[in-house]
Amino acid sequence: MSISLERLRRCSIAVDLGASRTRVYLKRTGVIVDEPTVAAVNTRTGGLIAVGTLAERMTGRTPAHIRVVRPVSGGTVIDIAMAQRMLRLLVGNKLRRAWRRRPLMSAAVCVPHDADPLAQRAAMETLTGVGARRVELVDTLIAAAVGCGLPVERPEATMIAVCGAATTQVAVLSLGSIVAAERVPVGGDTVEHVLVQHLRNEHALILPSQAVRPLHQALSGEGAVGHDTEVHGRDVATGLARSVRVDVESLRTALRTPLTGLLDSIGTVLRRCPPDLVADLADRGIMLAGGSALLPGLDSMLREATGMPLNIADRPGVCAVEGLGAMLDGKVQPMMLEAIVS
Ligand SMILES: Nc1ncnc2c1ncn2[C@@H]1O[C@H](COP(=O)(O)OP(=O)(O)OP(=O)(O)O)[C@@H](O)[C@H]1O
Asked: To which protein family does this belong (predicted)?
């Protein structure tokens, strides 16, 4: 995927349509939307009831005629019409005003590193459907690296892992390009799934989706071996509300298996890089971006397993859209400009 910074500078908005959250950056303004990629639909009338945070709160609490849907899965728009309707509502008046000023707006969109032509087309159609005349596709890894402030233009290696909800993308960059990259289906959703399964299998407890985040907090606790936490859910057999005390260490053990996939992808990317670049990384280490970079203990686990320094981006969730926004605003260094324009 080639990027023309010249063309990006002509774009008015930058969009990151993630499996978990949708972020929109308005040129020279900043991030104007950061909401869950969720829509609630009335199946009787086909009408949209809510989008974003409000729709996400309805998850698991709706009557039969209301369905909560996620139009993006694994970084790919799977329901273009729904994604367009959601985007229109999320951006609302702010974008409509900008649209009126510049009706033939161009938009830049992040797409996963190895997005196939169908996924690229779906992202383009989503944006053209909400009024963009031209759509520029940008590799999420480059956008996130710029957003984290990594010196991607230099002839030295930088390594980034963008840990999203559905997938994690890992790459080594040098001279404004990706030297090696890998995408694995491990992210925040995987962690959530493992926690839910663990409680079901070990404690016969069905965990409501809203109860997962408090478990993250318990996992981030002092890390002391042996401490436990109270979890509320529904008994698998009786269907009644029940609380159990869960050993936090057993949750950490359950999470080790999916996180091994992430570790393997780092190894694969490093093996594909020339030794000189790998040597650069010994000091510089890995930058973690994406919302799941905040998963408790992920950084220490990777630090321990790789022996490399680990840094978490300041605002890991919005790195990609902010990096894209920096390109739109022309904040990217001229030298970097030459390196990335292809
Ligand atoms: N403080 C936190 N602690 C643990 N996990 C978190 C935290 N904040 C966000 N997450 C997780 O981060 C994930 C969302 O990350 P992000 O917004 O980068 O995903 P996305 O870009 O929508 O997904 P994808 O890149 O897979 O399309 C969710 O799975 C969420 O549970």
From this structure: Belongs to the FtsA/MreB family.
DSSP tag of 298: H
Encode pLDDT of 69-118 as tens digits. Answer: 999 998 899 999 999 999 999 987 666 666 556 555 899 999 999 899 99
Is 330 part of any known ligand binding site?
A: no
Taking the C-alpha atoms of residue 82 and residue 59, their distance in angstroms, rounded to an integer, is 17
Ligand 1 atom at minimum distance from 212 CA: 31
Q: Is position 167 annotated in a ligand binding site?
A: yes
How close is the Cα of 167 to the center of ligand 1, in Å? Answer: 10
Read off the DSSP letter of residue 341.
B
Cα–Cα nearest to 191, from 144, 136, 102, 251 = 251
Kindly report the CATH number assigned to the domain that includes residue 117.
3.30.420.40
Do 325 and 240 fall into the same domain?
no
Alpha-carbon radius of gyration of the chain: 21
Q: Which atom of ligand 1 is nearest to the CA of 37?
A: 22
ipTM over 0.90: yes
Q: Does 209 lie in the same domain as 129?
A: no
Distance CA 250, CA 226 (A): 9
Pocket of ligand 1 (CB under 6 A): 18-21, 75, 164-167, 187-189, 216, 290-292, 294-295, 317
Q: Tell me the per-residue pLDDT of 157-172, one tens digit each, with 9 for 90 and over.
A: 999 999 999 999 999 9
Among candidates 54, 123, 52, which has minimal Cα distance to 90? 52
pTM for the structure as a whole: 0.90
- The residue segments making up the domain with residue 304 are 153-313
Residue 166 annotated as part of some ligand binding site: yes
Dump pLDDT digits (tens) for 137-163.
Answer: 999 999 999 999 999 888 889 999 999
